[in-house]
Amino acid sequence: MSHLPECQTLLLELHGGVLHVTLNRPDSRNAMSLQMVNELRAVFAAVADERDIRALVLSGAGGHFCAGGDIKDMASARAQGGEAYRELNRAFGALLEEAQNTPQVLITVIQGAVLGGGFGLACVSDVAIADHQAQFGLPETSLGVIPAQIAPFVLQRIGLTETRRLALTAARFDGDQARQLGLVHFVERDAQALAERLDEVLQQVLRCAPQANGMTKKLLLASAVQPSSELLDQAAQWFSEAAVGEEGVEGTLAFVQKRKPRWAT
């Protein structure tokens, strides 16, 4: 474990060639703070050349996967202005790119809230296992901002038609619907079934040669249309403009005050 970074927002456990990474901010339903983004990026960088680590299992503490971006970081960025919003947003896009391209098999085990950034992480996993009661959604537009870094990865995962519906309605849906959309591969009814399915998937992964898996993943991603860095740069700029604009200010204020924003009738 000496090569792995010290983390405050993540729990790291290495067992038999599998690194279990647990998002560990349960008090905020594992909301994605900038610190958590940076720590996850450090983990992906640390394991990139570690062939002894065959798979990464990403889950959340306290019964939730990830409830999206951290409102405190958003408030801090507001105090600093639009450029801080752009940098905060773009850092998360970089995390999604790095998670997408990690040579290990990335498995997500999903319970509870899977919103915004958490939704994006589910979309870049190689295998996604969800509880049937998990709650998925892209709430950004209901907060007056846009799913800037997430949308290209969602589109790649489930296609333009369904992504348009989900992003433009901020609709919530459960694990069974996520399976129908092709967002997740397996849906289980309880914690024991989730654990058993994970064991089964890991046994399958460990039968595959690590270098062959890494190269196959690289080939498959290159064969698909990938979200480009240029698009994510532009999207971060649009996000910062939305966040400091009238709707973004009203949307996040309404969220904190637990009321409907002005446009929601």
UniProtKB/TrEMBL annotation:
InterPro entries: ClpP/crotonase-like_dom_sf, Enoyl-CoA_hydra/iso, Enoyl-CoA_hydra_C, Enoyl-CoA_Hydratase/Isomerase. Pfam families: ECH_1. Belongs to the enoyl-CoA hydratase/isomerase family. SUPFAM superfamilies: ClpP/crotonase. It comes from the Bacteria. PANTHER family: ENOYL-COA HYDRATASE, POLYKETIDE BIOSYNTHESIS ENOYL-COA HYDRATASE PKSH-RELATED. Gene3D superfamilies: 2-enoyl-CoA Hydratase, Chain A, domain 1 (3.90.226.10), Lyase 2-enoyl-coa Hydratase, Chain A, domain 2 (1.10.12.10). This is Enoyl-CoA hydratase/isomerase family protein.
